[in-house]
Amino acid sequence: MVNLLLKHIDHVVAWGGATYDCSYIYKPKDEVELKKIFEIARTQGLTIAFRGSGQSYGDASMNGEHVLVDLSGWNKIISWDSSTGEITVQCGVTIEQLWRKVISSGWWPPVVPGTMQPTVGGCLAMNIHGKNHWRVGSFGEHVIGFTALLGNGEIVSCDKNDSSGLFHSMIGSFGMLGCFLTITLQLKKVNSDSVEVSSLSASNFDDLLMIIDQKKGCDYVVGWLDCVASDAIIGRGVVHTAMYLEAVEYENDNLITRYDLPDKLFLLPYKYIWIILKLFNHH
Ligand SMILES: Cc1cc2nc3c(=O)[nH]c(=O)nc-3n(C[C@H](O)[C@H](O)[C@H](O)COP(=O)(O)OP(=O)(O)OC[C@H]3O[C@@H](n4cnc5c(N)ncnc54)[C@H](O)[C@@H]3O)c2cc1C
Question: Are 226 and 236 in contact, with CB atoms under 8 Å apart?
Answer without folding.
Answer: yes
